């Protein structure tokens, strides 16, 4: 195999004229059924998508740019495959549109139709880029633990909790999350924050469980939901919230949030790796 024979650097089938048909919805139901989630969801929440490579032409042909944020409800019937999302956003590049408001409304209409539920869209234009927040997860880092790990597919038997002791409330996080895209096989790198009230979760077991996703194939949203269900079933917290933030790929980052109690939605502040 020489560089000339490889797929590297070869043209892809991109279009720069607006085309909503590029969006490829994927039903959530199949992946949920595989982990025992039925019609009655054990959580609510949202998927926060940030798109950093959005551009279009104004009415006079001058390029415009913005960062788009999409808030997709967790109870929507569908997710959108991320490569199709990227191709769809790229189709705006040589499309003339009268204003940023028209772009936002078009995005909202198309993503709502693909997901099957109302989607909120926010556009940040260059004047607001400097106001975008950066922070790291609050809580106690699991990554401080010095341990051995040898399981690289999700294994809920790694999870245990102190059921015979008083319940606790704590926030834990790890930056060692990795899973793999089921479409391209590419690695998805991420961080995950877990807040719970209930029997104290064994931290070493929880970190090993997070590491066990390393060879797992699943969409970001599906990984977060599998984590939620496994922790809920194995550790039986009264309250549980999981927030995963993945690094961007193709100009997109995806950040699923799931909870079983009322709490403020995350503020979408970017982590350093994003």
Provide keyphrases for this structure.
single chain; 274 residues; alpha+beta; GTP Cyclohydrolase I, domain 2; eight-stranded mixed β-sheet; two-stranded antiparallel ribbon; 12 strands; 20% helix; 30% strand
How would you characterize the overall build of this protein?
With 274 residues, the protein is an alpha+beta fold. The chain has two domains: 20-131, 2-Layer Sandwich (GTP Cyclohydrolase I, domain 2); 140-259, GTP Cyclohydrolase I, domain 2, CATH 3.30.1130. The protein is 20% helix and 30% strand. The chain has helices at residues 29-34, 82-90, 100-115, 203-211, 220-235, and strands at residues 25-27, 44-57, 63-73, 78-80, 120-124, 140-141, 161-162, 168-180, 187-198, 200-201, 239-246, 252-259. The protein has an eight-stranded mixed sheet. Strands 1-4 form a two-stranded antiparallel ribbon. The protein has a two-stranded antiparallel ribbon with strand order 7-10. A hairpin with a 6-residue loop joins strand 8 (168-180) and strand 9 (187-198). The longest helix has 16 residues, at 100-115. The chain is elongated and about 70 Å long. The model has no long low-confidence stretch (mean pLDDT 94). Substrate binds at residues 80-82, 220-221. Its main location: cytoplasm. InterPro entries: GTP-CH-I_C/QueF, NADPH_dep_7-cyano-7-deazaG_red, QueF, QueF_N, QueF_type2.
